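Entry 14. Structure prediction run on the chain below.
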Amino acid sequence: MARHRFHSIAFKRQVAQEFLAGATLHGLAKRHHLSRQLIRVWVPKYEAGAFNEDAQALELVQRCETKNVSSRQVDLFLGLAQANRTLATIERTLIVRMAHIYQGKYTNNEIAALISTHDQKQFLTDIAPTLHHKSSCYRTRALALAFYLIGSPIALIAEFLFISRRAIRRFIGRYRDGDVRGLLNRPSKGVKKADDKILRDRLFTIMHAPPIDYDINRTTWTIDLLKQVLSMDGFHVGHNTLSKMIRAEGYNFRKTKELLTSNDPNYRKKMKSITRVLRRLGPDDRFFSVDEYGPFSVKRHGGRLRVRRGEYPTIPKYQCSKGRLIVTAALELSTNQVTHFYSEKKDTGEMITLLGRLLNQYTGCRRVYFSWDAASWHSSKRFLAEVRRVNQFSYRKSNHTPMVKLAPLPARAQFLNVIESVFSGMSQSIIQNSDYESVAAARDAIDRYFQERNTYFKKNPKRAGGKLWGEELVLSKFSESNNCKNPKWMNLAAVR
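Output returned:
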């Protein structure tokens, strides 16, 4: 036989109010285990005033009459119903106060004003400072006592803090017995391990020796290794304590980073020479940053690529190369123009070829300066002899060529070579994510890149940068603080 459920007037009123406040029929039916049709019936009745307090009292009288209850008992039931409404109002007030105390909206003095006079001093002295304790355990105990002192029932406190009533009674009992400090403060165990001088001395004695002295085949210490050695000496200590002791002495574990640093003993002298040349550069002078890009294989290359979520682009690790290329180029800093050609190898002959091309291209200039890194073929005897030959007065007069001056960069200072920034921009633009069909296709792409770049800066004579052209790292001007070479981009292009 089906069991009929009875719903009170207060419950019906609550459901109708939730529906009128915006709740959906499906959500209310699922939450309260009701049928949607029943909710449709209750809402019009609520709007008609059928679920007010008078109707609730009338319903109670009718239920009593159907059960043959005496008038005295009816009066008792009505009084209990009124008392329940009063208790509900008080409970709502307490919940609001508890929430404000939990959120820190009440000051300690405002909370003390809600507590009886003989408990105020104890609250302000011992309980209030623990309301914001870093430990959730002691913070919960202090909140439970504060809620109890403002008059909240134990059942309500347990439901609010999600702890058992038994635990709250135990807290209250210890409070009444005068054991508040033991309840809200962790008892000290004396000297902490992190402050133990014997442990500290032993730890740093171990750290100052290499791990191999303790028969550990490692080159540097780690927290796990230190813990292992200390445990063999009878010191049982955890990772956090060891880290705290090491940090207290001003030490940290750091990963070594590679720095772009030149070891040239004449670094300052060469830098001073280059900057002096650039300051005195006249309108008929040209300053070239020279270098080679490659050799790199013409094959499928990886790089950053926009893909759909869940897709992971891959390339074969082992590929059949379609050929290789070496780009020899010179960047003229004042006009921002690149002169380039393709070489079979990196040697003195290619540098002499570049020198001849630049002298023919800039015949109307007075001087041209060459700046490059300390590669051996950049300063070979054969190349220097060629420079002396083209600087002879008879050669210059007959060929109308400028005088050649050399301004070499310090050793291991490729990061100061401005053309490396142009190569990095080219790598990201047309080498990464490329899969050219042949060497000729790759050469066409490189030629077009430099042609478009030169055309752009002829029409817009200004310093180049990432915002103006491609993805170049720095402006096309010399600076001691430059970091023109990006190893990550060069590696992605498989430059060797």
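Strands lie at 285-297, 324-332, 337-342, 367-371, 403-406.
Filed with the rest of this week's runs.
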